[in-house]
Amino acid sequence: MSKKKTKGFIRVDAERCKGCGLCVAACPKGDIHLDPQTDRRGIRVARVGDDVHCTVCGACYTVCPDVAITVCKATAPASSKSEK
């Protein structure tokens, strides 16, 4: 079974998110949605779906007025080939 490689992922700071939905509209992969349940403030905050679809394009980060999104790019793993 092969693992899908990801370019990275995003994190949503639920305390900063006000649920405006701009990131939902900006995500080209449709991987961000508003939580169906409200938080303690009565807000439906943004949630990230399956990270394997994220291209770390940064569109969500760019449109977020509350700087509630962090884009984390994956680092390249060390080479597993042994030198001969």
Provide a concise account of the structure shown:
With about 80 residues, the protein is an alpha+beta fold. A two-stranded antiparallel ribbon has the order 1-4. It has a two-stranded antiparallel sheet with strand order 2-3.
Give structural attributes:
single chain; about 80 residues; alpha+beta; Alpha-Beta Plaits; two-stranded antiparallel ribbon; about 10% helix; globular
What does this structure look like?
This protein is an alpha+beta fold. The protein has one domain (11-73): Alpha-Beta Plaits. The protein is 12% helix and 19% strand. The chain contains 2 helices and 4 strands. It has helices at residues 22-26, 59-63; strands spanning 8-12, 32-34, 46-48, 69-73. Strands 1-4 form a two-stranded antiparallel ribbon. The mean pLDDT is 85.
Tertiary shape: globular
The number of E-state strands comes to 4
Helix content: 10-25%
Runs with pLDDT <50, length 5+?
none
CATH topology: Alpha-Beta Plaits
The multimeric state of the shown protein is single chain
- Tell me the β content: 15-25%
Number of helices: 2
- Mean pLDDT across all amino acids: 85
Rg from alpha-carbon coordinates: 16 Å
CATH architecture assignment name = 2-Layer Sandwich
| CATH C-level | Alpha Beta
Distance N terminus to C terminus? Answer: 28 Å
Elements, N to C (H/E): EHEEHE
How many structural domains in the coordinates? 1
Order of strands across the main sheet: 1-4
Structural class: alpha+beta
Major sheet attributes: 2 strands, antiparallel
